[in-house]
Amino acid sequence: MKENKIEKTTKDEELGMDEENKISKTFDSTTEPGEKKLNIRNTEELPSIGINADNPNTKRKKMVSLVLAITPLIILAGMIYFLSSPYGQNLINTGVPLPEVSIEKVEFHENQVVAFIRNTGPEQVTISQADINDRIQSAAIEPSQVLSRLSEAKVIIPFFWNSAEPYEVGITTSDGTRFSKIIDAAAPAPVPNINQFAVFAMLGVFVGVIPVLIGLVWYPFLRKITRNQYNFFLSLTAGLLVFLGIDAFLESNEIAANNLAATFNGQLLIPVIIITTFLGLFYLSEYFSKRAESKISNEYDEESRHLGSQNHSLKSPEKSLSKTRLSSLSLTNPLSNDTIDQTQGEHEKKKKEEQLTRLMDKREIIRPLTLSLMVAIGIGLHNFGEGLAIGAAVLLGEIALSTFLIIGFTIHNTTEGLAIVAPLAKTGRLMIRRLILMGLIAGVPTIVGTWIGGFVYSPLASIIFLSVGAGAIFQVVYALVVFMTKSLRQTSKINNAESKKLGDKVVRSATGVLTSQETSPSTAIIAGFIVGLLIMYITGLLV
């Protein structure tokens, strides 16, 4: 009876559900063995789950969420419109806003003084007169006497001035408010020509490029030092960079306080740029280093698979079959088998082993090379800001070019090359081209900075680039600390292994504790960091 019922049901299925069986058969043919098969007969139950994009309830919920997101913006726009309307201004304005005009830069040309001003107040202002040393002078204002908020103008004052004398340039608005700027020593403004470009380029070369390249010459010496000495120089590099970062921060803060209008909030802009640069460079350095490591790891895995063909033959039965055929053919011809095994096989094996060794060396050198490159980029950004400051100081007459000044900058910046080569000291490679390239990355921006600072000085641009340099340097210090931590862990493992063997450099104290005759890593790190700070401070006194 059971068998008759089964036959009856199968006949009903064959008669009533031919189309569904065809669909299920075609679907089953596409599925891999072991995968879960989808029951086509139950697809009619899918709409009952409630996943439907055309459901009116979901559309209504989306509209409600969209309205809730836009409502605060509509309220804010309405409030701003009301406050800017005459009714809102009559309701709120109870006093007269004070004008504010900033004199950003003063240039001394032949028989004339040019002041660059900007309206940094809340309202429109009109410039009525200009004076030098409290004496009213005739002046031309370009493009207009009327300045809207944050607009700028150029005040040209015909005046016979004397070099190296102090002057006070004043600007008076239509309501009688006077704004002034004191120049300690008047100096002729650099004129953009070939000679002046050459002067600033030579200044950038002597201040930025040559000192960094001189510092790279320490690389052969660093390759022959011990592990603790290597930790000392890495820590010294961190001290140098920390000093440079603090110096860039203080210099940008000084420019923001003295030369930038309070409207721009320069002192708040500095930490924002530093943090943004730090996080951006951290992400980029990690991304590119991991990308390079993964690429080399993939190449290493491929080469190792070719070298060890046992696992590969298990995964591909066709290749294993071809190998068995080749082996059977080689049995029929033993002479060819000997020649293949002894000549080509050993030669290819050696080549693959050499390739694996090179890939391992590449993978080990990625982190130190990336760190040195980031040090070069950070120093380059700092030197660009330093070049801006030097060029602006020459333009504004704050410093005079002298041999002593150039010598001071050269000595001060020579240690920057040491900071670049220190992470590469234990890689075992010379890499002259890469070292020269990184030296140029660190030094050449000084030339560009002196050009921009000397010809088109902008306090805001100086603050931005100095802050970017500080953020880059602090990011490099963080990467250097991480690198040193990994190096110390490796050193501790090596020391523990050597202490178990009771080598020549390990002695037992009276208490029975094993001690090393070498300087401890912590002492070398602390000493190196302090020495790095002192070197930068002492050489900075020469500038």
From TrEMBL:
Any one Gene Ontology MF annotation carried by this entry is: zinc ion transmembrane transporter activity
Feature: compositional bias, Basic and acidic residues: 1-25, 344-354
Primary localization: membrane
What keywords were assigned to this record? Membrane, Transmembrane, Transmembrane helix
Listed name of the protein: Putative divalent heavy-metal cations transporter
Where composition is biased (Low complexity), the residues are: 323-337
Q: Report the transmembrane regions from the record.
A: 63-83, 197-219, 231-250, 262-284, 365-384, 390-414, 435-457, 463-483, 524-542
Lineage of this protein's species? Answer: Archaea, Nitrososphaerota, Nitrososphaeria, Nitrososphaerales, Nitrososphaeraceae
Q: Does the keyword Membrane apply?
A: yes
As for subcellular location, the record says:
Membrane
| GO CC terms of this entry | membrane
- Quote the PANTHER family the UniProt record gives: ZINC TRANSPORTER ZUPT, ZINC/IRON TRANSPORTER
